[in-house]
Amino acid sequence: MPGVCLDILILQDEDGFFNAICLQMDLVTCGRDLEQVKDDILELIRVQVVDCLQEGRPQDVLRPAPQEYWDILSRITMGERRDGQLGSLAPDDESSIPPDIRELLKRLTVQSFQTRAPRHALS
Predict the structure, then answer these.
(1) Domain spans of the chain, in order of start
(2) What is the mean pLDDT of each run of 10 residues along the chain (123 residues)?
């Protein structure tokens, strides 16, 4: 199976809060600490993948975020921050996850793009 790349859009609002959106899975987390938000979105992705596959619902893993977030990603310019690969989805404790799901998690790549949130995007 080929690897899959997930895009994480990280938006910072006027109050300094960070919002991380996994565009392919429509998962969102927020907080004041950027590193914690990145860790949280990776954990949300991991939990969603594992739960859906263990429950026999592979069709529920990918569910695109609303178009407005895809539009923001497409407007990101060269001058704005692109973080690159965000981290690994391989779980720390692999004993409770079936081998086929562990292998899938290892093949997922997560890249992030960071920018200031447009005024209307997070309201």
Answers:
(1) 4-116
(2) 77 90 94 92 91 92 91 66 58 69 74 70 53
